[in-house]
């Protein structure tokens, strides 16, 4: 008995079919899933807003080019929500705020980065977040734009 080899045409048809199937699966998002990233600090909304009970606000300062500071408060608006109130003092008797959704960007190490709305119509962005116990964020530093002041300014906020 002799073994029969497939014809060149059959091999070509199979190769084309496999290539089309792979391309179709990839196009539909059916490619193999990437390894899931584990949240280590600030990777989900509840790390900022609370899971069962509302979290306390983050309070701190924005550093102005003149060397003075303005108060800033980031207040979560709901448990496990992405809604936040960003309030920045314009003077000793006037503060301005906006309420909007924040976005969390998580790196491959599971470290979150928060992007939040500011009164200036632009956004603030963390450059560092800190979770001394578990994944709950207790301190953030970064840059924020303030109405009436040119350029992004350093800010730092914390909560107990």
Could you provide a short overview of the structure?
By secondary structure, this protein is of the alpha+beta class. The protein has helices spanning 8-27, 46-49, and strands spanning 58-63, 69-76, 83-89, 95-101, 103-106, 112-117, 123-130, 139-145, 152-158. The protein has a 9-stranded antiparallel beta sheet with strand order 4-3-2-1-9-8-7-6-5, with no helix packed on it.
Describe the structure.
15% of the residues lie in helices and 38% in strands. The protein is of the alpha+beta class and 160 residues long. The chain has a single domain, classed as Porin (Beta Barrel), CATH 2.40.160. The chain has a 9-stranded antiparallel sheet, with no helix packed on it. The protein is globular, with a radius of gyration of 25 Å. The relative contact order is 0.18. The model is unreliable at 15-33 (pLDDT under 50).
Write the layout of secondary structure elements.
Blueprint: H1 8-27, H2 46-49, E1 58-63, E2 69-76, E3 83-89, E4 95-101, E5 103-106, E6 112-117, E7 123-130, E8 139-145, E9 152-158
Antiparallel strand pairs: 1-2, 1-9, 2-3, 3-4, 5-6, 6-7, 7-8, 8-9
Tell me about the biggest sheet?
9 strands, antiparallel
Low-pLDDT ranges: 15-33
What topology, given as strand order, has the largest sheet?
4-3-2-1-9-8-7-6-5
In terms of DSSP E residues, the strand content is: 35-45%
Mean pLDDT: 83
How many separate domains?
1
- Taking the alpha carbons of the first and last residues, their distance comes to 82 Å
Percent in helix? 10-25%
What is the CATH C-level name? Answer: Mainly Beta
Q: Over all CA atoms, what is the radius of gyration?
A: 25 Å
How many β-strands, per DSSP? 9
